[in-house]
């Protein structure tokens, strides 16, 4: 993939993910604000309704009290005044309509001390009741046969007595409101009543949340309030209570919810949680996609390096074989049996070298597909180490180095495959030889730790950085050395080592420092 295209894709995907996260956060905040606004409207309506119910209850108490006094008086003194009369005659039907509306005044002789007058003065005002009396009558005009006699025959008569309309009601309520103002607030409403009404109204609207309330008079607290109510910076809902005839009031009913934010967030928790889960899934998918893109890019680079290395590794043997074949075909050389045998030996060695590299690739492929048949027997790991050292000892000596063995483990029998375990040790030793710029200096140690044997292969070569150390057992991975092929190989040896050790229920790891050599540890369970 083109590097610029890769960077562009990463930027676009990052912007898209950031946009999605921003939209989700904005939606959650908007939902909370909408819920808060809806909650505020509901609470305001609850407060108005509670205040109205308290006012109606107080007025009903007054009315019931007044009615009980009226019943104890007996027959009141009645006086009629303001009698209105209406007469209409229908010429077609010879009917006359009489309609009268009179107002009756009933005096109960109840003094105004009923209103709990607290000024101590004497008041002679009495309570009176006004009632309307409405009468409707229809008469039929009739004349005698002689034309001289005349009479009115009643056809219909209806009489209705009832209270006066809104004017009387308004006047009565105004008197009551003015009288009620003289009473202390704690005598007009109790904590129990407010708690009951508030709880009922909140329950009717499915609001299950703790609350605190209080009644304030012109900004000052009264005795009517909950124990934990505080006039603080917490959001408060307010409604007037005990309004007068002009709609004004000196009292306010206040309501607060200490855990309102939690309640509002809990109300959208379901959708918010789903939103967060889907956003998290998108983030994981995005991270995975970026990781896969980077991984594929790395694999592409590693495979390119592998192909270059394999080409370089095959190029020299092929060239050597070609030169040897051409030399053998030379008539002068073909007669020299010694030269022919030397050239044939060169061809055989180079052929083995290419065959070994192909076998390495095929062996890793079979391991990945679990097609490699690994049978395990009881073997002595010390014998395998000695055999592996013998494979590379001549190469090390040829470069002026050494391989020293320190096989100090008291027990060394393990369940392993002889051939594959030998290849494992050889690969690690060969790796130590390859990455020793000067004469290879290698020490091999064995020791028993608990029920495991540990093989430690230590060299004094070039060493590895921490970044390389993390990837040294990955397939095809080789430390970049530019275009210089001073280290032969194709990045499969240590990958093969790890797969074989894992198959033996063992563990392989390395410690290294750049310029100070490396140490490889192979840990296997003892029998």
Describe the structure.
The protein has 527 residues and is an alpha+beta fold. Helix content is 50%, strand content 25%. It contains twelve helices and 15 strands. The protein has helices at residues 3-73, 166-180, 185-188, 191-204, 260-267, 269-329, 331-334, 337-368, 381-398, 418-434, 466-471, 493-503, and strands spanning 77-90, 95-111, 126-143, 150-163, 212-217, 220-225, 236-241, 251-256, 377-380, 402-407, 413-416, 441-449, 452-459, 507-512, 518-525. The strands form four sheets. It has a five-stranded mixed sheet, with helices on one face. A four-stranded antiparallel sheet has the order 1-2-3-4. Residues 117-125 and 481-487 have low confidence and may be disordered. Keywords: Kinase, Membrane, Phosphoprotein, Transferase, Transmembrane, Transmembrane helix. Its EC number is 2.7.13.3. It is an enzyme of class 2 (transferase).
């Amino acid at each position: 993939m083109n590097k610029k295209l890769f960077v562009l894709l990463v930027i676009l995907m990052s912007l898209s993910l950031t946009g999605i996260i921003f939209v989700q956060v904005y939606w959650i905040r908007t939902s909370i604000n909408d819920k808060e606004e809806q909650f505020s409207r509901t609470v305001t309506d609850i407060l108005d309704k509670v205040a109205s119910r308290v006012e109606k209850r107080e007025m009903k108490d007054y009315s019931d009290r007044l009615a009980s006094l009226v019943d104890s008086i007996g027959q009141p003194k009645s006086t009629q005044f303001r009698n209105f009369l209406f007469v209409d005659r229908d010429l077609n039907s010879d009917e006359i309509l009489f309609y009268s509306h009179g107002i009756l005044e009933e005096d109960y002789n109840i003094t105004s001390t009923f209103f709990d007058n607290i000024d101590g003065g004497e008041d002679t005002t009495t309570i009176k009741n006004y009632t309307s009396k409405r009468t409707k009558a229809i008469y039929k005009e009739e004349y005698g046969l002689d034309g001289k006699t005349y009479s009115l025959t009643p056809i219909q008569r209806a009489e209705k007595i009832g209270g006066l309309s809104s004017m009387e009601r308004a006047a009565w309520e105004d008197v009551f409101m003015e009288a009620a103002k003289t009473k202390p607030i704690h005598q007009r409403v109790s904590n129990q009543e407010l708690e009951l009404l508030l709880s009922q109204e909140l329950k009717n609207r499915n609001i299950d949340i703790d609350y605190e309330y209080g009644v304030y008079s012109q900004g000052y607290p009264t005795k009517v309030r909950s124990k934990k109510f505080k006039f603080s910076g917490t959001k408060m809902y307010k409604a007037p209570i005990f309004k007068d005839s002009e709609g004004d009031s000196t009292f306010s009913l206040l309501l607060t919810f200490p855990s309102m934010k939690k309640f509002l967030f809990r109300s959208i928790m379901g959708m918010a949680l789903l939103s967060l889960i889907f956003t998290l899934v998108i983030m994981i998918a995005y991270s995975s996609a970026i990781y896969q893109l980077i991984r594929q890019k790395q694999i592409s680079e590693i495979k390119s390096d592998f192909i270059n290395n394999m080409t370089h590794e095959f190029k020299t043997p092929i060239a050597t074989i070609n030169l040897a074949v051409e030399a053998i075909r030379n008539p002068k050389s073909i007669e020299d049996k010694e030269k022919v045998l030397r050239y044939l030996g060169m061809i055989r060695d180079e052929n083995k070298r290419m065959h070994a590299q192909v076998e390495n690739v095929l062996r890793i492929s079979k391991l990945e597909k679990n097609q490699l048949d690994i049978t395990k027997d009881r073997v002595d790991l010390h014998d395998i180490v000695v055999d592996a050292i013998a494979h590379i000892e001549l190469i090390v000596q040829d470069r002026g180095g050494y391989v020293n063995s320190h096989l100090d483990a008291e027990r060394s029998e393990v369940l392993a495959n002889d051939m594959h375990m030998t290849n494992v040790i050889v690969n690690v030793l060969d790796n130590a030889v390859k990455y020793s710029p000067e004469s290879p200096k290698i020490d091999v140690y064995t020791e028993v730790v608990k029920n495991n044997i540990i093989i430690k292969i230590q060299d004094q070569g070039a060493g590895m950085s921490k970044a390389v150390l993390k990837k040294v057992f990955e397939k095809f991975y080789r430390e970049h050395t530019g275009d210089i092929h001073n280290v032969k190989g194709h990045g499969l040896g240590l990958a093969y080592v790890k797969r074989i050790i894992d198959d033996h229920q063992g563990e392989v790891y390395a410690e290294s420092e750049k310029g100070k050599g490396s140490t490889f540890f192979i840990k296997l369970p003892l029998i």
